[in-house]
Amino acid sequence: MVSPLKCMPDSDLNDKFKEYYAENGVDAEQVAAFDMNNLDYVHWGHHAVAFPSFFEVTELDSLEAWVYSGYHGTDGVRIVKHNLQVGQPDPRCNDYIITRILSATDMNDIPTILIDTKLIGEQDSIVTKLPIWIYAAEEPVYLEGALVNTFGSGKITVNCHESETVDQDYNFTVFSTEEE
């Protein structure tokens, strides 16, 4: 079954967001001004995420945070803590440079961090663009919503790894491998 949200014209989807925000206590003027076509999106593959214009968004220069590693093993989806810095390569894949780090607290008081990246050259070793890639969190629990958005609402086993072990004994990776 296809979600009805995926079949809606943008104007209907925009109205659904407005309805949701109004039902959750967002000021009527802010709801009226909301236009999803004018948001500042972070893009990744076919995915795009933006904070609503009424969120207070902070642009960070650097951050130490938990991120999706791109690796899965028998121990689950692997996340790893990295130092992320604007203008520097993404520590998970040096094919990309970090262009922005955006931080806001959502309507449920959950801190949400988005990482915007840009491919540096022609070589892109990431063959599977999963939405979780653009999220970061200072505490692993704050990645839960993005993990569910990416992998579904079933049981998700998450394992916190060190950068030295995250790519060992994996059974799935988003990166191209020599066997391909």
Explain what you see.
With 180 residues, the chain is α+β, with helices and mostly antiparallel strands. Helices cover 16% and strands 36% of the residues. The protein contains 3 helices and 11 strands; from the N terminus they run ααβββββββββαββ. The protein has helices at residues 10-23, 28-33, 144-151; strands at 42-44, 47-49, 58-60, 62-73, 76-85, 89-90, 93-105, 111-119, 135-137, 158-161, 172-173. A hairpin with a 2-residue loop joins strand 4 (62-73) and strand 5 (76-85). The two termini are 32 Å apart. Residues 1-5 have low confidence and may be disordered.
The low-pLDDT segments are 1-5
Report the principal-axis shape. globular
Strand content: 35-45%
Please provide the ordered H/E string of secondary-structure elements.
HHEEEEEEEEEHEE
Number of helices, where a helix is a run of at least 4 consecutive DSSP H or I residues: 3
Taking all Cα atoms into account, the compactness measure Rg is 17 Å
What is the compact description of this entry?
With 180 residues, the protein is an alpha+beta fold. It has three helices and eleven strands, in the order ααβββββββββαββ. It starts with 9 loop residues before the first helix and ends in a 7-residue tail after the last strand.
Task: Kindly list the characteristics that best describe this protein.
single chain; 180 residues; alpha+beta; nine-stranded mixed β-sheet; two-stranded antiparallel sheet; 36% strand; disordered N terminus
